[in-house]
Structure formats: structure tokens, C-alpha cells
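Now for a chain:

_____
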Amino acid sequence: MSGHSKWSTIKRKKSAEDAKRGKIFTRIAKEVTLAAREGGGDESMNPKLALAVSKAKAANMPKDNIERAIKKGTGELEGGQLESFTYEGYGIDGVAFIVEVLTDNKNRALAEVKNAFNKNGGSLASNGAVSWQFEQKGYITITREGVDFDELFLVAAEAGAEDVVDEGDAILVFTPREAYGAVESTLRENGYKVEDGELRWFAQNETVLPVSKAMQNMRLLERLEDLDDVQSVSSNLEITEELALAYDE
């Protein structure tokens, strides 16, 4: 999971930058709305909503925004009719991308995703063209402060986690898709602070490219993630130490 670990570091850095300009509010508000629509507006009875609200608070989203997003999901306010879609595509040198979208306008979302690929040297692909190269897994970020890594490792492993990685400022827990909910709930029940948690697509085999071409793919990834309707983007580009350093500059 070393490559996934490097990517998680970049992902957290970008999330912090997005938070500064409010971009992250749009994404998290949709998560809150969808969670409330699927499981109701009571956090104590809806673990998915509890996590989404926790993420919203961690991003310093105003309380009124959170409550409005919940009410959209429960139908008390208009605007909760969101649909989820998954698009697949190719970047530079055939790097595979999976783009997950949550939108109230499919045509707009598709046009924006297609435009991002076309303007950054890539192209959309048909469903199934690249997804066979990926596996969906649970990805959970735990606040590192005050946590005994060995104890957390045992709790996570017993709940069904397949890997736990100490990142220094955070601990990453990876789970099989079917065990994600149980592991996330167990960690919360044992007092661990979950910063983030979601199902993500992870490449079974990653592609190594020269830094110049890898950076072109990173720019495509950034452009896709900047779209309001896009919730997450995954690729099979390997995040090498050299690429991580170049991206950080």
C-alpha cells in the first residue's frame, strides 16, 4: 500500500488547500445530503450521516450549511435530488482514471468531465474499459495524536481491516469493500477520531511514467477534482518519491 500511502499524503494536502477556498464545502454538503436521503436525518441512527457531518465540522463548515444539507436529504428543503455516476477514461500514455460524480444534472456533469479529459490530453472511455484494473476498498483516516498505533492496529485488524499505515500525522486504515462499514463503526466505538472515510478505487497494478508525463496526468486529475460535481478521482498512476517531490514544489 506504499503507493496508496503517498497518494493519501497528497490527497490530504489538496483537501487542506480546497478547504481554504471553500471548494470542499460543496463536496461534503452533497455527502451529507445523500447520507440523509438514504438513511434519515438522525446521526445517532445513521452512521454514514454521522461521518459526513463529522467531516463537515472538521472542514469548519458552518452549522447552518450542515443543517440545510440534511434537510435537503430528508426532503424538508428542495435540492436533494442527487444522482451518482461513475465515468472512466484515459490520461497521458494510457493512464487509467475512474471519476465518481454526484450531481443534480447529469448532462452538465458529463459535459464538464469530458471537457476536462479533452483539454488535458485524455479521453473518456466506455463503461468497463478501465474499471477491471481497479478494486474498490475502504479508506479511513484516523487522527494520530494520542493514539497507540499497536492498539489501533489490533482493533482494526479484528474488525476486518487488511492494512494499517502510520503516516506520522495520521493513521490510514484500508479495508475490503464489504468490511468498510464494520471497521469504521468499530473504530468510532473504540474512541478513535475518524477524519475521513470512504470507498475508493485502488489500482491493482500501477503505471510508472517519467515525471514530466506523470505531472501531466496529475494536472488532469486536479482539473477533474476541481469540478463541483466530482466527488473523487482515482488513477493507476504510481506516485513515486520523485513525483511526490515534484508535485510538492
User: Anything to note?
Assistant: The chain has a mean pLDDT of 88. Residues 63 and 220 are 33 Å apart (CA to CA). The longest strand covers residues 134-143. The chain has nine helices and eight strands.
